[in-house]
Amino acid sequence: MTIRVELQKIGILGLQLIWHFLHFIVSSFYFVVGIATTLESYLISCGFLRKYNCLNIDRVQHLAIVVESDEAYNTLKIIELLQWLASLGIRSVCLYDVEGVLKQSKEIILKKVKHASVFQTNEPVQLNCKGITLEFLSVSDGKEAIVRAGNFILANKWRKTSMSGAHEQLISESQMTDALKAVGCGGPQPDLILVYGPTRCHLGFPAWRIPYTEILHMGALKSMKYGSLVKAIYKFTMVRQNYGK
């Protein structure tokens, strides 16, 4: 029995050593990757990597920033990010978080970001040539949009078809798209979404506005880097999009 117990202890100790060794290897790998990313970002920011100096910014007509609500309270970082985007030539940005924290900071953001203007939902999309046009969204906007579009279809289509004697009433995708535009909830489709936070998803950003949108995860907002932003936009501009074909 004593030998068996000793062997079990040795086995457990061996497994613990293997676990700690694997943990060390993985931690070292991510540490090296982090250093390499930081160094690359620094080189891009300083202009040493020349291929990033010429961005085809026309490929990014509309850009969306999705932020975790907890990180959205960091207004200074949001303002700094918008200033970077404006300096790169981005003219239309949609700011989104689930709880609407960014909406609460709208006045401060508009004051701090030079030549910033608010996107008007009922007017044609016009790019701000001198500054940047900002749109503020939260998850409630998506829910409200669906309700308003549904009521619009009910008032303009279903009642007419019921009066004409039609019984089968189905809503097509094109009808929903037209209804969303009619109630002022269409909005421009972002070419690129940058997600800041631990979650690698769009966090409920209105799905009807991102059928062909590229989504990139940028990590924590507090750790954002100018070079990483430039690299993300550069990678997007170099990708050929087939738009579902």
TrEMBL record:
Chief site of localization: endoplasmic reticulum
Domain of life of the native organism: Eukaryota
Enzyme type, top EC level: transferase
Subcellular location: Endoplasmic reticulum membrane
Catalytic activity, as annotated: n isopentenyl diphosphate + (2E,6E)-farnesyl diphosphate = a di-trans,poly-cis-polyprenyl diphosphate + n diphosphate
Residue spans crossing the bilayer: 12-33
Keywords assigned: Endoplasmic reticulum, Magnesium, Membrane, Transferase, Transmembrane, Transmembrane helix
PANTHER family: DEHYDRODOLICHYL DIPHOSPHATE SYNTHASE COMPLEX SUBUNIT NUS1 (PTHR21528)
Protein name: ditrans,polycis-polyprenyl diphosphate synthase [(2E,6E)-farnesyldiphosphate specific]
